[in-house]
Amino acid sequence: MSYGHFEGREYVITNPRTPVKWINYVGTIDFGGFVDHTGGLLVCKGDPALNRITKYITQLPSSEFKGSTIYLRGRRGDRSFLYSPYYVPTLHEYDRYECRIGLGYSRFLMEYVGIRTEITVFVPEGESVVLQDVRIRNTGSDTVEVLDLIPVVEYSHFDALKQLTNADWVPQTMTSKAIGRPGGLLVLRQCAFMQTGRAENFLTSNSPVSSFEADRRRFLGENEYGTWKMPFSLVDGREFSNYEPLRGDNVGALMHHVGPLAPGEERRVIVQLGQVESVEKAMPLIERFREPEEVDAAFARMQAFWEEYLNVCQVETPDPEFDLLVNTHNPRQCYVTLNWSRYLSYYQLGYGARGIGVRDSSQDVMAVVAGAPGRAKKLLRKLLSVQKRNGSSMHQFNPKTMEATMGDAREMEDRPQYYGDDHLWLVFAVCHYIAETGDYAFLEEEIPFYEKDKEGRPLESARVLEHLERALAFTWNDTGVHGIPHLGFADWNDTVNLKIGAESFFIAHQFSKAARDLADLMDHLGKKEKAETYRSYAEEMKRRVNEVGWDGEWYLRYFDWDGSPIGSRGNVHGKIYTNAQSWAVISGNATPERARKALDAVYTHLNTRYGIKLSTPGYDHYDPNLGGVTTYPPGAKENGGIFLHANPWVIIAECMMGNGERAYQYHRQVNPIKKNEIIDIYEVEPYVFCQNILGDEHPQFGLGRNSWLTGTASWMYQAATQYILGVRVTHSGIVIDPCLPSEWEGFRMRRKVRGTWYEITVRNPEHVSRGVQSCTLDGEAVEVSGGAARIPFDTEGKDHVVEVILGA
Ligand code: GLC
Predict the structure, then answer these.
(1) Is residue 513 assigned to a domain?
(2) How far away, in angstroms, is 194 Cα from ligand 1 center?
(3) pTM of the full predicted structure?
(4) First CA to last CA across the chain, in angstroms?
């Protein structure tokens, strides 16, 4: 079955009955959320747990109303109709349906009963309002005598979890009031008592409202035995009751009479759903987006933002699906993960305390530094401010209150109450940011550590550089009996939670890479002694890893608290883990011979046609010693599933070892754009990466879930642009070191680095995988060493042409 296709920078859904809801993001976490492909809308302001606006329950069936919709009601001749231009919740037959997933907007097209509607949903940049810009045209040959347009939202309590846990207190706090009179431009204000400050939601439009409804019982009618498919308040051309509830399940519904509509005639109604401190004070904002020109200008500004963001890196390779991903869909997803971390998606529901993850967001930052350096820096500051004085880090924080927690560790008291990895990601993220931007001044910025006194004042601050050094020092001093770093509650793999004393090779590898990154930075800062010290740390860790961590064919993943190895051929389940191999190479810990063997072992034991599994074989029963990983059946999620986040690390490792064929094969087999061909197996959106695909031990092999918010986005983007295409920005210049499938003739990349443009052409006449033979910058030869070219940074602020030739 086909549900849609790619067109320009959009994905066009043409059949609304997709296997699961497919979504798109509008706005940012400051104000925004997602809109699904049938118009359902989940929006919040600042935080989906503490300030949620619409009630969108993803677990309800796809046919159900979720958060928001529009109804069209009318009559043409003797035919009456009531339907939604979003298809849900009326589920009617239609002549044409389209949902265009765009950059920051979704556009819906519906043709039915000779009426064509086009609705664009988006959030004007920096504003706290989501617009539904509706155009309705009579495409029939006779007049539509009666035509009513009725936007409807259902509100959530601001406290999203309370909404689901209390059905008396919540409705007792919810009130709605109309501002303005029926017959004119009316604002329907919705309000609840909120602990974290005052806020009012509003629903309004730029067309006269003849009546409104704000109480769900009245809207659905008959004590709610009316349904969203057929609300009783909409039968027989009735008007709404204009009732202003002081309790209840609050909705907002506005009746607009937009008919009659002569053949060819069109109306444009702009619906606003927003949140402000006070509607009275916000009237200028509300007035502004009643003007079509203002809406058009805001839309154009948003498009300009995306163009600018994407333009910093555009490529042309022999593979159009690779290009479509790398030029548009992958970097778009990276921007979305930067905004939302793992907080709010169709799968990660934004309730409770999860908030922004230090580990997750540090990785997200790495992919957007070139396109959105300002946002990246802002987020880095927040991430560093939840680091602790001892160098380790809190695990996650609420973006509104900046209150941080130790995540799931809190639930298991007999396990360590810190994560072994969080703080080390900070090192990667900051080093990456600095190299890309050249913003060395950031290293001097004072940022507080998380610990506070009774008044809430930070106990200590330090410069960013010292934050990084403390991170490294924490792990250097936190090793177990084999000299390998302690696991803590978990490393990257959240679901293996071993008892106190367990050691993690993933953290050993992370540590070595962090030490080398920091050494490179110290070199650049002229601090030779520190650079040497950190390099010696990395060398020492490498020695230990190779002494105790080699299993004969691959590297071990953990030592349990009692010293027994995990990820070893001696284990019955979980014999080999992917990350232990890829990261051994990425970190420089693997010796060349072992690196090759370890990566071959991944290919032999862990690769499938839908991607690389995280480990194998899957655990087949619950084992409290191992923890969460054994709660999944074999083949699911971290238990032998294709956990996509780990795939790009293997791609990077293969590139580092010069195996371009394999790196490309691994990239291509998980490229979501190709999933369009097997969408009934894959099920989730083909325009973004998902977090997990069921592995070949599972009967539903190939099924994807948890789309959008995954570190896969950032790392896939880095793998494609910095390792396959091989363009990396370092402290001392731009390294060009591609690792291609040998059949490629070459590629082109237009890349903006520190304010200047580089037009890079790579030719591969001898069809090799790797090895720069010669390179020119504006016609002059530049240094090539070790098979890579290094372009010095521009000092004149002009555009450059780089020509690279690969060869044996
Ligand atoms: C989820 C978490 C991430 C973790 C990964 C592997 O994606 O968000 O933090 O690293 O699972 O367990």
Answers:
(1) no
(2) 32
(3) 0.98
(4) 45
